[in-house]
Specification:
This protein is an alpha+beta fold and 271 residues long. It has three helices and eleven strands.
Length: 271
């Protein structure tokens, strides 16, 4: 009887041991599977992405160097609007309005859409561009084997980079220091297209998030109206009883959307 009990206990112990061994094996296999799925595959994919990005990055840097060299050549020759065709990558703002002000122009390389390839931002300091220390006019990107002009500014429309890689577009009145409109954009996708595909004034590669405009622009005896829109919905609309109202609203708006400080601006022509 005792012998039978011992055999029975031995059999149970053996079954439990086998079950534990199988469970342990299964556990190790599952753990190995999770390591493969959660760690190895992402690392492989990241490495593949880096290998794909590196040649693109290097090509973009070479292309941007070409743009900056064109600026330096234009500065050296004091190029003007009459020679626009000779300087296809130089901002029209410089050629038409700021020729001779080479030492006021700067650039920065900053990835706006998170694709691993920075964009090239180029700008110059105008006396009435007081809403950001670094106003810029053109945004260049690289894709499909060549340069893409993501945004094309003008003397009446400039850009500023705000926190969170939000691009602020503001229309500048040539008759006064007041501004007629502020628009805040975020990148639509990681694939930019040439700005020419838009209306020339907007940003076809970006989604409009917030707008503050006055319409009509009128600072004489008549009173204009203002409209504040956020994510496509009107937040506030009313009359400008006093011309000082608009700058005050702008100050409030920009306080909520401060300028981006995580960007390294450099002069195109260094001292």
């Amino acid at each position: 009887m005792d012998t039978a009990k011992q055999k029975s206990k031995w059999r149970i112990s053996t079954v439990v041991l086998v079950a534990l061994t199988l469970a342990l094996t299964a556990g190790v296999a599952y753990a190995a599977y999770r390591v493969y799925v959660d760690i190895y595959l992402p690392l492989q994919q990241a490495q593949q992405h880096v290998e794909e990005i590196d040649p693109q990055y290097e090509a973009a840097m070479r292309a941007y160097e070409g743009v900056l060299q064109e600026y330096k050549d234009a500065f050296e020759q004091n190029a003007s609007a009459q020679e626009t065709a000779d300087w296809p990558h130089v901002s029209q703002v410089y050629l038409r309005f700021m020729s001779g002000s080479a030492r006021q122009w700067y650039y920065a390389e900053h990835d706006l859409n998170g694709d691993g390839i920075p964009e090239l931002l180029i700008g110059g300091k105008l006396s009435f561009s007081s809403y950001d220390e670094h106003t810029f006019y053109d945004i260049w990107s690289y894709g499909g084997g060549g340069l893409i002009q993501v945004a094309r500014g003008s003397i009446q429309q400039a850009y500023s980079l705000r926190e969170g890689d939000v691009v602020m577009s503001y229309a500048q009145l040539v008759t006064d220091t007041y501004l007629s409109g502020f628009r805040f954009y975020t990148p639509t996708s990681d694939e930019f297209v040439d700005a020419a595909e838009g209306d020339g004034m907007g940003l076809p590669n970006f989604t409009e998030k917030e707008v503050l405009v006055i319409d009509p622009v009128n600072f004489g005896d008549e009173v204009g109206t203002y409209t504040h829109t956020s994510n496509g919905e009107v937040v506030e609309h009313g009359e400008l009883a006093d011309t000082r109202m608009f700058p005050e609203m702008v100050d409030d708006l920009l306080e909520k959307r401060p300028a981006c400080t995580d960007i390294a601006w450099q002069m195109i022509i260094s001292e």
